[in-house]
Write a structure and sequence with these properties.
Layout (H helix, E strand, L loop, with lengths): L10 H6 L22 E6 L1 E3 L5 E3 L8 E6 L1
Antiparallel strand pairs: 1-4, 2-3
Length: 71
């Protein structure tokens, strides 16, 4: 598991959903391919909520996973 802070400005999200609480909800991460190894992989990203539960993060199309291949 890689922990990533959620603190990137997402004014577009806050404006679209009319909710200023969502202003700093963007995230970004970089990790080396060595951490997951060669081959096909499905990556999923989750946010840990205040109550300790987890919610899947979606891309702009609503996908909750990303398929990649490392050669």
């Amino acid at each position: 598991m890689i922990k990533v802070p959620v603190n990137i400005n997402r004014k577009d999200v806050a404006l679209t959903l009319n909710n200023d609480d969502l202003l700093m909800t963007g995230w970004d991460t970089i990790f080396t391919a060595k951490k997951i190894g060669e081959g096909k992989h499905r990556l999923e990203f989750y946010a840990m909520l205040l109550d300790g539960s987890f919610a899947p993060l979606q891309d702009h199309k609503g996908n909750i996973y990303f398929d990649i291949e490392i050669i």
